[in-house]
Amino acid sequence: MFGRSEKNESWMAPEGEPVVPFLDPEAAEPASSVVNELRDRLTKLEQQVLAQYTATAAYATLSHQNVETARAEARADLDRTQSTIISLLDRLRTEMGSRIDGIEHRPSMPSSSLGVDAASRLAMLEDRMGSIINALDACIKENILLRQQVNELLQAKMQQDGWLVSSGGTSDLSLR
Q1: Beta partners for 174?
Q2: Domain end marker among 81, 100, 119
Q3: In 3D, which of 144, 145, 171, 143 has the Cα closest to residue 158?
Q4: Using an 8 Å Cβ cutoff, are 143 and 137 in contact?
Q5: Residues 70-109 pLDDT 10s
Q6: Predicted confidence (pLDDT) at residue 171 exceeds the cutoff of 80
Q7: How far apart are CA 133 and CA 151, in angstroms?
Q8: What does each C-alpha distance from 83 to 2, 53, 145 come to in angstroms?
Q9: Nearest 5 degrees, angle CA 137-CA 140-CA 144?
């Protein structure tokens, strides 16, 4: 029942190749030394596998911590953004409410007084425009008068300094 059969040994070697026993029955070394060597190799292999497992577990732990840190930072960023948006919306709501309240609290004018008010405002504007036009006319007259005085002073100074003006303006000057 526990004996080896050809069927059970076929998994160890590819088809067509003979099955070679693990320990050579005719070996010069005793089986105990081979077993000790195999035990040592198996122990070293186990230590390497454990070291690899430990390193992989350490990398997995670090990765998990980094994921948790990134998740916490993203959550904090989301909370800050949400808080900023809410405060801006509240400020906008307050400003719009105060503007709407200001519009609603304006005194309403009856339509008949609106026409009278517009006419009086138009008359005031016409009066202001008339005074502005009069002030501009006075400014222009003073400017013309000042220009004439400057020209007369310039000619007098030129004649006094020995310059003569010949048939034209100050651009056609000659020495006496």
Answers
A1: 164
A2: 100
A3: 171
A4: no
A5: 999 999 999 999 999 999 988 888 888 887 777 666 655 5
A6: no
A7: 27
A8: 74, 44, 70
A9: 140
Which residues touch 154 (CB under 8 Å, ≥6 apart)? 170
Tell me, rounded to whole angstroms, the distance of Cα 129 from its chain centroid.
51
Instruction: State the Cα–Cα distance between residues 107 and 135, nearest whole angstrom.
Output: 37
Burial 14-23 (b: 16+ CB within 10 A, else e): eeeeeeeeee
User: What span, in angstroms and rounded, lies between the C-alpha atoms of 176 and 174?
Assistant: 7
Domain encompassing residue 70: 28-100
Give the Cα separation of 19 and 8 in Å (integer): 11
What the block records as the tokens of 119 is 């006419």
Whether 39 and 96 map to the same domain: the answer is yes
Q: Sign of dihedral through CA atoms 74, 80, 81, 83? A: positive
